[in-house]
Design goal:
Layout lengths: L1 H37 L12 H14 L1 E5 L10 E2 L2 E2 L7 H4 L4 H4 L13 H10 L4 E7 L16 H4 L6 H12 L2 E7 L24 H17 L6 E5 L8 H14 L4 E2 L41 E4 L17 H13 L3 E6 L9 H17 L17 E6 L2 E6 L7 E5 L5 E6 L10 E4 L2 E5 L10 E7 L7
Parallel strand pairs: 1-4, 1-9, 4-5, 5-6, 6-7, 8-9
Antiparallel strand pairs: 2-3, 10-11, 11-16, 12-15, 13-16, 14-15
Helix pairs in contact: 5-7, 5-11, 8-9
Ligand FHN binds next to loops.
Length: about 475
C-alpha cells in the first residue's frame, strides 16, 4: 500500500510540477503578447542578421516580384474637386493642394459609405493579375484610418456610416487566397493634434502639440496593425521626409516593428535614408530592407540591393474623377519585365472610388496583364537581374541555369541573337509552347543564335527559354 501510495504521490507530484511549468510559460507568453499589444513594453535590440537569415526573411518577397498598391480613403469622395473647383496634384493630397483645414475635411467621414466594396473581388483581381501581395493605405497623410483603431475615433468604424473594418475584410480575403497582406502607413499625419509641423494654412495652433505623444500614438497603431490581422508581410512606411522625424526615430521604429514581428519586411521610408524619388537607400546605416523608387525605374539593378518601384497606372495614387491618362497594358507589362530584368519588384497602384470600386480602366489592364503572366509568369517570379547588357529587341531575366529572353520586337529575319552567352545551350523553346518544341540553336564563342518561327506568340512580349549547362556565367 505504502509503495503503491508512494508511487501515486510521486506521480501526482510530477503532474503537479508539469502543470505549474506549463502555466508559467503560458503566463509569460501572455504577458509578453500583452506587452506587445500595449505597444509599451521594453524593446530589445534587433540582433544583426546573417546573410542567410536575411535571405530567408526576404525569400517570399524576392519570389513575388509583383504586388498591388491600393490608395484608398476619404480623398476618394472629393476625387480631385473641392467647392466646385478642380484641385491640382495627386488625389490623396487634396487636403494639401486644396488647403483644406482639418475642420472642413473631417466631415467627409459622414459621406464615406463604400457599399460596393468587396474584398474578395479586389483580392481575386490582384491574384488573377499575377500579383502576390497587396499593400493598402491603412492611414495616409490625412490621418484617416481604414480599421477600427482603439486609439482614435477618426476611423472607418467609428466615424462613418460604413462601420466596417476594411483592413479586417481585406486581410481575411488575402489570407484565404494566399496573398500576402501588407500595410502602408504614413508617419506624417495632417489630422493628429500632436503631429508637427502644422500645415501652413492650418488655423490650429502648434502650441500644446507633443510630438513624443504623437510617436506613442504612431507606435500604438503600428502595434494594432501588426497584431490584429494575422500574418503581415510588409510594413510600407511613408511620409518620413519632414524634419520632425529623425534617423533616431527611424531606427527605433524599425526595431519596434521587428520586435513585434521578427520576420516582417520593412521598406526604407521608415528612416531617413531614401534618396528622394529615386528611392534607393544612401550610405550611413539607415534602416529599411528595400529601396522604394517612385514613378521611376532605376537605369540598372544594384547588386545586393533589394528594391521595388511603386507606380500609378495614370497620374494619381488616390482616385480622381478626371485623371484618364492611363498607361497602356503594353507599357505596364514592359515595365514589369524591365524591373524584373534589373532584380526589382513592381508595386502597381489602383485608386478605388468612393463607392468601393476599382476603376474599370485599371481592371481592364490588370486582367490583360494577368493573361500574359498566366503563360509567362515563371520568367518573372523568383528571377534575378540579367547578367547581360540589355538587348535592342527586349530584356533578359534569369534563374540559375535558365535565361529568359523577353522579345518585345520580333526579329524580321526570325533569328534571335543572344550576345554574351558563353554557357552551352542544352535546349531552347518558346515559353508559350506547351509542347516545348526545341528551337534550332547555333552556338558561337560568346553568342547564340536561335531560329524563331515566323509569328511571335505574343504581340507585347514573347519569351524564349534557353536552358544552359551550369550556372549562367556573367558577361
Ligand atoms: O506623399 C505620398 C503620396 O501620396 C503617395 O502615397 C506616394 C506613394 O509612394 N508616396 C508619397 C510621395 O512620395
Amino acid at each position: 500500500m505504502e509503495k503503491a501510495g508512494e508511487a501515486m504521490l510521486e506521480k501526482r507530484a510530477i503532474i503537479g510540477a508539469v502543470i505549474i511549468c506549463v502555466g508559467t510559460i503560458w503566463l509569460l507568453k501572455g504577458s509578453w503578447n500583452q506587452g506587445l499589444r500595449a505597444g509599451e513594453r521594453q524593446q530589445i535590440k534587433i540582433p544583426v542578421e546573417t546573410k542567410e537569415q536575411r535571405d530567408q526573411r526576404m525569400a517570399w518577397w524576392r519570389e513575388a516580384r509583383f504586388g498591388m498598391f491600393i490608395h484608398w480613403g476619404l480623398y476618394a469622395l472629393p476625387a480631385g474637386e473641392w467647392q466646385g473647383r478642380r484641385v491640382r496634384g495627386i488625389g490623396e493630397w487634396i487636403m494639401h493642394y486644396g488647403q483644406i483645414p482639418v475642420e472642413e475635411y473631417e466631415p467627409l467621414t459622414k459621406q464615406f459609405n463604400p457599399v460596393k466594396f468587396n474584398a474578395d473581388e479586389w483580392v481575386k483581381l490582384a491574384k488573377d493579375a499575377g500579383m502576390k501581395y497587396i499593400v493598402i493605405t491603412s492611414k495616409h497623410h490625412d490621418g484617416f484610418c481604414l480599421w477600427d483603431s482603439k486609439l482614435t475615433e477618426y476611423d472607418v468604424v467609428d466615424a462613418t456610416p460604413f462601420k466596417r473594418s476594411i483592413l479586417k475584410e481585406l486581410s481575411d480575403a488575402c489570407h484565404k487566397e494566399g496573398i500576402k497582406m501588407c500595410w502602408y502607413h504614413s508617419i506624417m499625419d495632417w489630422h493628429h493634434p500632436d503631429y508637427l509641423p502644422r500645415r501652413p494654412w492650418e488655423k490650429r495652433p502648434a502650441a500644446g502639440a507633443d510630438f513624443d505623444r504623437y510617436i506613442r500614438y504612431l507606435k500604438g497603431q503600428v502595434s494594432e496593425l501588426l497584431t490584429s490581422f494575422g500574418p503581415i508581410g510588409v510594413m510600407w512606411f511613408d511620409g518620413e521626409w519632414e524634419d520632425t522625424w529623425t534617423h533616431e526615430h527611424g531606427k527605433d521604429l524599425y526595431d519596434y516593428v521587428r520586435n513585434i514581428r521578427p520576420d516582417i519586411i520593412i521598406n526604407n521610408r521608415v528612416d531617413k535614408g531614401r534618396r528622394g524619388m529615386a528611392g534607393l537607400t544612401k550610405e550611413g546605416g539607415f534602416r529599411g530592407d528595400f529601396g522604394t523608387p517612385e514613378q521611376e525605374i532605376p537605369a540598372t539593378g544594384v547588386a545586393g540591393m533589394d528594391w521595388e518601384t511603386c507606380m500609378t497606372m495614370n497620374n494619381t495614387w488616390g482616385y480622381k474623377s478626371y485623371d484618364d491618362n492611363w498607361k497602356s497594358t503594353e507599357d505596364l507589362l514592359h515595365k514589369l519585365v524591365d524591373i524584373a530584368s534589373k532584380g526589382g519588384n513592381f508595386l502597381l497602384n489602383v485608386g478605388p472610388t468612393a463607392e468601393g470600386l476599382i476603376p474599370a480602366a485599371s481592371v481592364e489592364r490588370l486582367q490583360a496583364m494577368g493573361r500574359w503572366v498566366k503563360v509567362n509568369g515563371e520568367s518573372i517570379y523568383g528571377t534575378g537581374a540579367s547578367p547581360f547588357e540589355r538587348p535592342a529587341w527586349g530584356r533578359y531575366t534569369k534563374k540559375k541555369d535558365i535565361l529568359y529572353a523577353h522579345v518585345f520586337d520580333w526579329p524580321g529575319d526570325n533569328k534571335l541573337v543572344v550576345e554574351g552567352l558563353k554557357n552551352k545551350v542544352k535546349t531552347a523553346y518558346l515559353l508559350a509552347d506547351e509542347e516545348r518544341s526545341a528551337l534550332k540553336v547555333v552556338q558561337e564563342a560568346d553568342r547564340v543564335i536561335v531560329a524563331l518561327p515566323q509569328e511571335a506568340p505574343d504581340a507585347i512580349d514573347s519569351v524564349v527559354v534557353l536552358q544552359v549547362e551550369g550556372e549562367i556565367k556573367e558577361k
